[in-house]
User: Which sequence fits this backbone?
């Protein structure tokens, strides 16, 4: 009974859940860091892709507007 109480007490005081009477290892924290790193990399890749796609659209719009302004009122845009 004292062993169970000690485990519960250790869980509350350290903030870690104990498995089989031992505290969580640093390998778990390392795996979490790698997962967060991969998640951040994936989000960054999506943001870069969106910016490139928007950049191409904006470039085409400015080119069309520029050609319309250069042509004057004789051309329809």
Assistant:
């Amino acid at each position: 009974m004292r062993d169970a109480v000690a485990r519960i007490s250790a869980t509350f005081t350290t903030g870690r859940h104990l498995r089989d009477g031992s505290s969580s290892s640093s390998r778990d924290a390392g795996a979490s860091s790698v997962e967060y790193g991969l998640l951040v990399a994936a989000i960054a890749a999506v943001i870069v892709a969106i910016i490139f796609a928007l950049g191409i659209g904006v470039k085409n719009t400015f080119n069309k507007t520029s050609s319309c302004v250069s042509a004057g009122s004789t051309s329809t845009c």
